[in-house]
Amino acid sequence: MSTYELSHLRALEAEAIHIMREVAAERERPVLLFSGGKDSIVMLRLAEKAFRPARFPFPIMHVSTGHDFPETMEFRDKTVERLSERLIVASVQESIDKGRVVEDSGPRANRNRLQTTTLLDAIAEHRFDAAFGGARRDEERARAKERVFSHRDEFGQWDPKNQRPELWSLYNGRIKPGEHLRIFPLSNWTELDVWQYIDAENIELPSLYFAHEREVFRRDGMLYAVSEHKPLQEGEEPFMCKVRFRTIGDMAVTGAVESSAATVEDIIAEVAAARVTERGATRADDRFSDAAMEDRKKEGYF
Amino acid sequence: MDLLRFSTAGSVDDGKSTLIGRLLYDTKTIFEDQLEHVEETSRRRGDERTNLALLTDGLRAEREQGITIDVAYRYFATPRRKFIIADTPGHIQYTRNMVTGASTANLAIVLVDARKGLLEQSRRHSFIASLLRIPHLVVCINKMDLVDFSEERFEELRAEFAAFAMKLEIPDISFIPVSALLGDNVVEHSENMPWYEGTPLLYHLENVHIASDRNLIDVRFPVQWVVRPQSDEHHDYRGYAGMVAGGVLKPGDEIVALPSGLTSKIASIDTLDGPVDEAFPPMSVTLRLDDDLDISRGDMICRVHNKPTTGQDLEAMICWMTDRPLTARGMFALKHTTNSVRAMVTDVQYRLDINTLHRDDGVHELGLNDMGRVTLRSTGPLFYDAYGRNRQTGSFILIDESTNRTVAGGMLLGISG
Ligand SMILES: Nc1nc2c(ncn2[C@@H]2O[C@H](COP(=O)(O)OP(=O)(O)O)[C@@H](O)[C@H]2O)c(=O)[nH]1
Predict the structure, then answer these.
(1) H or E element that contains B288
(2) How many domains does chain B have?
(3) How confident is the model at residue B417, as a pLDDT?
């Protein structure tokens, strides 16, 4: 006899599907932001769950910093082809070339901040009115109060004092012209939930997530992949190490962790035992100030 | 492993943050970098000891004021269950936040300071839990270490609360004597209170039976999205996607679609992983029917002999959530399940004093954080159940059409006269 119980993963999945369908129904021009990271890969699976056998009622957009891991690009193109969905690439390099943004210099320069302008320009250009993002509330404290439907004003800014109450599963998708919504279907997922779901669903991931030998160097207590985008400083010695990445973004800011986890099960064991959050471990740009994240969110970051 | 959502509301200093901090800490949910960060911030602020409250404190403005003023969601898991905490401030000016946190909760934790007894704030939290129909309430009598772990004091407070609880519509109320600071009866059974025969808080949270809290009797399927692939391969496919709001659906079931009243049978219940034998709340599925009916978003699929109320004259209890007061004749966008209509508040019947549950019959205006009984008239029919029977088909929100803000959460009462 059925007890009509739903596992926590299936409950989270059902909620995320519900959210995606609400957006499709209430907004005219949604877009799904794809970073190549596991959270956005999970979002793609959820979009399949929500809309198949039809096509997604929105395109996929990658905001490319130009410093992407080659593995990510390859994975992205393969995935888009498999899904036969439409891909839009918004390029930070183009924003730089057009003079929309100025690149920082120095050893800690990175293009993460610049992504905001590229993203907002692309949203304006395509007149997108809702953008799905893979952010989760457990990622760090400034996100704990984030809404599922997060309202952005005409400048793409987030006003913590002006967020709409979200009751039951009734989302308010109304906006004025020029404004847009950021939608976070994975709000209630934790890092462990995401990995368990990847395991349960047998979702393919870029090889970067699994332990591999790579040439790295140490800076500010973190390991970085050696690449043209992150020149070595004096005194920094590259060395080979077995590593994997817990998040995947711009090569210049995404740190690696030493690991021998070769399978999803290994990673689940590692995550369950981890004592450091994924952002704390591997996102250099979040460590500079206490309110770094909150400031960037106000500006319109993911 | 299933999912339990619970809300906590606390007045300042009753130990809510300490309790949550302990649950997170003892279930190994706090990471080293978060803890380091909190230790450092505590030092910088000149706090005497590491202030675990900072863990649940998100935004800068709030940090400056030293208080939490919004709903913060926290997560932890044990091998038995995943938990989502909606952590809300307890002061009366944050009633709307408490209501928001309570709207999705299966269970509410109310803290009572063992020294102070049942104060206004704890009463109010309990009333809100009851109005929002949270089926399980756990009353944690906290700071037991400060009353010598006295059984007598615990029994006294329990009796006092039980007398008050007669007014509540909460079917399951438990009492646990705890010391959030020292950890007694939070995760481990307390050695200081051998007289307590119940289970520690975490065990209770892990085992409380929530499966039958959902309405599995009345089939309710609000149509959310019509799946129509414009491809050769799926040329004739037409599926009605949505989240089951009540009852159990099976292929072969006879159904009726509202408002059309047309009937058909469920041909299959589709998911990406193939058809399933049954669907129940809160699954998101796609229904295909034997006949080609004209069904669209906002329609309700249910059983022929068990239909929801259809109506435009609505009676509701609402919580008002914006500065501009609500008076009669206010016009709003109303969202109920997947249905959007416009509605006029034709009458504000009374304000509810949420400290006492008394009706202020003389008040016909609702201010920010007020709750009250209203009558509404909608431009189109809603297919609804009384909130007490189904929290999904009995709830709605009101949206101000000029600012697009969500200005009220509402709970529908039975059929209006
Ligand atoms: N002795 C004792 N003190 C406690 C207990 N729980 C909390 N406290 C203290 O009460 C004060 C307020 O606690 P806090 O968790 O910040 O309360 P909140 O305002 O409800 O979040 C702090 O100084 C805590 O250390 C307890 O069980 N026993």
Answers:
(1) strand B284-289
(2) 3
(3) 36
Q: Which of B390, B414, B3 is nearest to B219 (CA)?
A: B390
Q: Which residues of B387-411 are buried (b: 16+ CB within 10 A; e: fewer)?
A: bebbbbbbbbbbbbeeebbbbbbbb
Take atom 25 of ligand 1 and give the residue whose Cα is closest: B181
Q: Which residue has the CA at smallest separation from atom 14 of ligand 1?
A: B15
Same domain? For B225 and B143 the reply is: no
* CB count in 10 Å sphere of residue B238: 15
Residues B225 and B370 in one domain: no
Q: Does A288 touch chain B (CB under 8 A)?
A: no
Which whole-number Å values give the CA distances from A114 to A107, A179, A287, B159, in the listed order?
16, 20, 17, 61
User: Which among A195, A216, A254 is positioned nearest to A72, based on CA atoms?
Assistant: A254
Cβ-contact A264, A195 below 8 angstroms = yes
- Identify the residue whose tokens are 């957006």: A23
What one-character DSSP code corresponds to residue B182? T
What DSSP string runs through B119-164? -HHHHHHHHHHHHTT-SEEEEEEE-GGGGTT-HHHHHHHHHHHHHH
**Are B74 and B36 found together in one domain?**
yes
pLDDT band at B17 (very low <50, low <70, confident <90, very high): confident
B186 lies in the same domain as B81: yes
What pLDDT score was predicted for residue A217?
Answer: 87
ipTM value: 0.93
Question: Count of CB contacts below 8 A, A vs B?
Answer: 177
Rounded to a whole number, what is the distance in Å from the CA of B93 to chain A's nearest CA? 15
DSSP state of B188: B
Q: Which residues have any ligand 1 atom within 6 Å of their CB? A: B 10, 12-18, 53, 142-143, 145-146, 179-181
Min Cα–Cα distance to chain B from A70, Å: 30
Q: Supply the range of the domain harboring residue B252.
A: 221-303
Taking only the tens place, the pLDDT of each residue in A124-180 is 999 999 999 999 998 876 777 889 999 998 888 887 777 899 999 999 999 999 999
Cis peptide before B282 (omega within 30 of 0): yes
| Among B60, B98, B225, the residue to mutate for chain A (most A Cβ within 10 A) | B225
Q: How many CB atoms lie within 10 A of CB B23?
A: 24
Query: Residue holding tokens 């993963």?
Result: A9
Residue A145 CB-density burial (10 A; 0-12 exposed, 13-18 middle, 19+ buried): buried
Bridging pattern class, strands A130-132 and A30-33: parallel
B269, B303, B337 — which closes off a domain?
B303
Per the prediction, chain B carries an average pLDDT of 90
Fold topology of A8-193+291-299: Rossmann fold (3.40.50)
B54, closest residue in chain A (CA to CA): A141
Q: Does B72 touch chain A (CB under 8 A)?
A: yes
Is the bond preceding B251 in cis, omega lying within 30 degrees of 0?
A: no
Domain shared by B13 and B85, yes or no: yes
Let me know whether B342 and B233 are in one domain: no
User: Region A194-205: what's the mean pLDDT?
Assistant: 96
Could you tell me which of A39, A91, A88, A82 has the C-alpha nearest to residue A61?
A: A88
The answer on B9 and B130 residing in a single domain is: yes
Q: What is the DSSP letter of A232?
A: P
C-alpha dist (Å) from residue A137 to A116, A140, A147, B19, B184: 20, 7, 9, 20, 29
How many angstroms separate the CA of residue B71 from the nearest CA in chain A? 6
pTM (whole model) above 0.80: yes
| Burial grade of B235 (CB within 10 A; 0-12, 13-18, 19 or more) | exposed
**Is residue B145 domain-shared with residue B18, that is, in the same domain?**
yes
